Amino acid sequence: MNKELSREERTDALGGMGCKRKRVEDARFTQGKGNYVDDIKLPGMLHGDFVRSPYAHARVVSINTDAAMALDGVIAVLTAADLAPLGLHWMPTLAGDKQMVLADGKVLFQGQEVAFVVAKDRYIAADAVELVEVEYEELPVLTDPFAALESDVVLREDLDPTADGAHGPRKHHNHIFTWEVGEKDATEQVLDEADVVAEEMVYYHRTHPCPLETCGCVASMDKVNGKLTLHGTFQAPHAIRTVVSLISGIEEHNIRVISPDIGGGFGNKVGAYPGYVCSVVASIVTGVPVKWVEDRMENLMTTAFARDYWMKGKISATKEGKITGLWCHTTADHGGFDACADPTKFPAGFMNICTGSYDIPTAYLAVDGVYTNKAPGGVSYRCSFRVTEAAYFIERMIEVLAIELNMDAAELRRINFIRKDQFPYQSALGWEYDSGDYHTAWDKALKAVDYDGLRAEQAQRVEDFKAGKTRKLMGIGLTHFTEIVGAGPVKNCDILGLGMFDSCEIRIHPTGSAIARLGTISQGQGHATTFAQILATEIGLPADSITIEEGDTDTAPYGLGTYGSRSTPVAGAATAMAGRKIRAKAQMIAAYLLEVHDDDVEFDVDRFVVKGAPEKFKTMKEIAFAAYNQAIPGIEPGLEAVSYYDPPNMTYPFGAYICVMDIDVDTGETDIRRFYALDDCGTRINPMIIEGQVHGGLTEALAVALGQEIAYDDMGNVKTGTLMDFFLPTAWEVPNYETDHTVTPSPHHPIGAKGVGESPHVGGVPCFSNAVNDAFRAFGLRHTHMPHDHWRIWKTANDLGLHG
Amino acid sequence: MIPAAFEYYRPKDMAGVLSVLVEHGDDARVLAGGHSLIPMMKLRMAEVPHLIDLQDVEGLRGISVDGNTVRIGAMTTQNEIINDDQLVAAAPIMREAALQIADPQVRYMGTVGGNVANGDPGNDMPGLMQCLDATFHLVGPDGEREVAARDFYEAAYMTDRDDDEVLTAVSFSSTVGGYAYEKQKRKIGDYATAAAAVLLVKDGDTCTSASIAMTNLSDTPIYSEAAGAALVGTSLDDAAVSAAIDAMLGDIDPTQDNRGPIEFKRHAASTILRRAITNAWSRT
Ligand SMILES: Cc1cc2nc3c(=O)[nH]c(=O)nc-3n(C[C@H](O)[C@H](O)[C@H](O)COP(=O)(O)OP(=O)(O)OC[C@H]3O[C@@H](n4cnc5c(N)ncnc54)[C@H](O)[C@@H]3O)c2cc1C
After folding, report:
1. Banded model confidence at residue A804, pLDDT cuts 50, 70, 90
2. pLDDT tens digit string along A351-388?
3. Spatial contact of A690 and A740, defined as CB atoms under 8 Å apart
4. A43: number of Cβ within 10 Å
5. Where in chain B is the domain with CATH 3.30.465.10?
6. Which of A21, A62, A425, A437 could form a disulfide with A135 if both were Cys (CB 3.0 to 4.6 A apart)?
7. Per-residue 3-state assignment (H helix, E strand, C coil) for A366-384
């Protein structure tokens, strides 16, 4: 078999790591044959819909469901009073807080769930929602976290103001936690003694992951066998199973959670929502399946938002520009409940990666979480926990420092990068960066765009502008980001007490094909494609002969799911390790078949060969068959393996991005002329998928930087609740991205891969924002907040006196 | 985003449409492309117990150019406007404007009649029709009548059309001279932050006729007669263009919304109009 093929040809035939394998998922997606939650239709299925609060802060005086119940086709209307006897009117959040499932006496944000209508079809449910009469008594609204910390108005009357919260002491009744990292006194001393200190308030506005598919579920309680099946848009199906079991009291083996195809998650689908609890209760009560799928407005207004961080920063340096210290105080607006999705010990996620790519000897970070009358959330929208915030903060502070020092921002970065020989690098805020080669990446990027040429062109543009020859300014956005992904080591990362390992289970079939099941779940990342490639290389069977399955808790091994770019760093590692177990057993089988000692055979692409006699070999396909048809002394039949992988460390992907932008000072319109993105994600499993992920992440970065926001008025009304006002870029707004790479493998990951799905978002946001800020640097601007939509850019120009 | 229940009618002729309108008055509405009305129904901002679909009604579709007169049936889609060679020759501003409305998917469905009858200050066609000095053709239980586009719009969603009238067509004279439709928007598929429709005629170096209308800068489209007058008789020197812009600024009355504060909108309107005038003049 394959005797005539060369080693290279045999390698190519596998479609393993490093090749641009086409995505196996796309055949069904491009033909409209995906199977999403809303495609699921079970016999007798009922439909749920929410009555939601029109007010941001109000007491619920009364709820009258009579008229709704009288409507033909309405089966039930649930309120907090109905859930209370079951103890389900509140639910725990991932952040150690609790959240109302249905309004228990008051509402804390516009759109909050007040009652759950269950009806025979979706239309009747919507009509019944209109018929539920709720009497509210309006309360003062707090939308500003700084004001909330001063206000007498108590948002969370359910909490004892003197008792500790989940993360220690609370300073005020609207305060949630203080989280401190680093050395406060030492940092303040460094700042006091420094040659130069730059100070800035950097606001990262509230936005939303806005996956194309909104959140939803179908709960189906089989009262005969006591089993609950829950189909849903879950980024972490196993964690959802455990949570459902803990709060409902149904034993975990009686719960089957299935995540079918998921139309994007970006962090929005990590947590648990009232809709899930209400659907489960409704199905238990009625004994038939209940579907709940939120609409676009509900998604934008009520399910998890992202960011809303006010980051006050100070950065100090010597006259020559060597950074000596970094100080950051963040006021974090969490909304009405603390429903952030962060590992338990990290209430502000990995915000302490905010020293970025720089060798900063002394640093201090404090984060204060605050309750306001806004929707809960604070999830990691296409990033590892709060890493976009950290990257945005440091990359803005570097630019502000460059202005303070009157230095070129590219050079300032270069002289402060952590050097290659410093890895593994211990950061002042507690991380051990596994690997990196920032100078190489930076120099390659600057050269690729002819950085000096761009600066010369920009200087000319400033002259032309001042001479009245043009109304367009030119901005050069620079960013060198370092991410921290792949949570994470069980020793310091858990969610609700569940360690953040991940898993893979492989079964090789007799004819040499295979199925591998993982604890993760793809939402568009292409797991079925890339994980098969990892295995193809590890076990020598073609990727096309390997099925990857995820998302069914009855069949998949336990895992913590997909977010924070953790799938490849953690489940990908588990996959490689499980593959190696398969290979170890295959080696013994091959040795038996070849009648030599185990140590006398070695793996060669798709076979084991006798050392020194390559014409004597057994292919993996032959070995697979032998595993099932030969009685081999001392070896069990079959060829299967499971691996649970607890990573020794996070991985630290990095990248160098450069954006060139033209800005019309009169209309505030931006035109991205060029965007160059160099990513180093370690070993590259599928370059085509990496490129796709980079394009997607950059596009979401463009969205956030240039307009995407969840904005509230003073009454707590959401002003951007539809896609007319919430900015989702189309192909028209998106530039042609130039992608590039360097490869610095992770030293601790079995295949050296670091994860890439979120890097472009983490690096992209500051890069676009820096370009806008940079365009105005020559006119005296230090910093202007995102989102850089037309009117805000116009206002910046206007404030600088550029409109004459 | 689930509409309330409604009765659906699909008459074959105008008599059938009018009889439902007369019977149900306020409670009945016609449906054209549905790309303004259906979203409003889904948001339950429009409640329409009786919905009359116009798509099978004869005689409402199509573009004709007869001598100098252009006539566009109400049910003609925005996409058809883009692709009609006769229309492009007779009034190229129509294509330029239609290409800036929404996105291709919306334009395949959305109609000229729906766009002008809707009364949303964000719609592009009303200002364009005012710039073209178009005539709207209406039919109701009392027969047919004509209204000038410049007299049609009263306030947001309030027009001269009675509840029981249907708009059957728009007509206008083919254009001569230079034209431009300039629109600032936040992204593809967005309504205007500011838009300007401009038609200019040049004789020698002098502007002999100018028509200017603005979109989404008041609760109706704004035909700025004064802005046009400021250009006529000039050679469009800087002073004349500035005078036109000032005149336009005197006529618009924008409000603050997610697109920005009033001051910004006025500045954007000036910039967009300046561009449109420059562009139209270069095409004379
Ligand atoms: C995403 C999106 C973006 C858009 N962007 C733009 C844009 O940039 N610019 C723009 O101008 N428009 C825009 N639109 C609106 C679009 O052009 C609509 O198609 C148009 O406003 C209405 O036309 P319609 O045929 O869809 O009318 P419908 O939605 O069917 O009707 C609109 C209203 O007009 C009434 N009506 C319709 N036809 C008649 C008639 N013949 N006689 C009397 N009354 C009638 C209806 O009763 C209804 O009240 C956008 C729409 C969407 C969904």
Report:
1. confident
2. 999 999 999 999 999 999 999 999 999 999 999 999 99
3. no
4. 7
5. 63-173
6. A62
7. EEEEEECCCCCEEECCCCC
């074959």: which residue's tokens? B12
Considering chain B, what percentage of its residues have pLDDT values greater than 90? 100
Residue for token pair 């995407």:
A708
Instruction: Please give the backbone phi and psi of residue A679, each rounded to the nearest 5 degrees, phi first.
Output: -115, 135
Of A520, A500, A517, A515, which is closest to residue A568 (Cα–Cα)? A520
- Is A790's CB within 8 Å of B190's CB? no
One CATH from 3.30.390.50, 1.10.3720.10, 1.10.3470.10, 1.10.10.10 for B178-282: 3.30.390.50
CA neighbours within 13 Å on the CB side: how many for B46?
20
- C-alpha A250: how far from its chain's center? 30
Shortest-distance atom of ligand 1 to CA B60:
41
Domain with CATH 3.30.43.10 in chain B: 7-53
CATH code at position A55: 3.90.1170.50
| Gap between the Cα atoms of A723 and B42, Å rounded | 14
A795/B264 CB distance under 8 A? yes
Sign of CA dihedral B187, B190, B191, B196: positive
* Tens of pLDDT, residues A78-109: 999 999 999 999 999 999 999 999 999 999 99
**Residue nearest ligand 1's atom 5 by CA:** B102
**One-character DSSP codes across A32-60:** T----GGG---TT-EEEEEEE-SSSSEEE
pLDDT at A3: 57
Predicted confidence (pLDDT) at residue B259 exceeds the cutoff of 50: yes
Phi-psi region of A377 (alpha: psi -120 to 50; beta: other; left: phi over 0): left
Determine the average pLDDT of the residues in A704-718. 98
Mean pLDDT of A214-236: 96
Residue found by looking up tokens 């590259």 in the block = A684
Q: Which residues of A touch B5 (CB under 8 A)?
A: 123, 127
User: What is the rounded distance in angstroms from the CA atom of residue B37 to the CA atom of residue B22?
Assistant: 20
Cα–Cα distance measured from residue A566 to residue A519, given in angstroms and rounded to the nearest whole number: 11
d(C-alpha B95, C-alpha B81), whole Å: 6
Rg (CA), chain A: 28
Q: Using one digit for the tens of pLDDT, what is the confidence trace for A26-78? A: 999 999 999 999 999 999 999 999 999 999 999 999 999 999 999 999 999 99
What 3-state DSSP class applies to A666? coil
pTM of the model: 0.97
Average per-residue pLDDT in chain B?
A: 97
Report the residue among B26, B115, B144 best suited for mutation to probe ligand 1: largest number of ligand atoms under 8 A from its CB: B115
Rounded CA-CA distance A23/A526 in Å is 6
Any residues with CB less than 8 A from the CB of A212 and at least 6 apart, and which?
A: A263, A264
d(CA B57, CA B15): 9
CA distance A288 to B271: 61
- pLDDT category at B206 given cuts 50, 70, 90 is very high
Structure-token pair, residue A590: 């091959």
Where does B7-53 sit in CATH, by number? 3.30.43.10
Q: Give the whole-angstrom CA distance, residue A333 versus residue A155.
A: 13
Which residues of A are part of the catalytic machinery? 235, 382-383, 758
pLDDT recorded at residue A591: 98
Which ipTM value was assigned to this complex? 0.96
For residue B75, which atom of ligand 1 is closest to its CA? 41
Give the span between the Cα atoms of B59 and B57, in whole angstroms: 7
Co-location of A681 and A584 in the same domain = no
**Rounded CA gap, A417 and A439, in Å?**
7
Does the distance separating the beta carbons of A123 and B2 come in below 8 Å?
yes
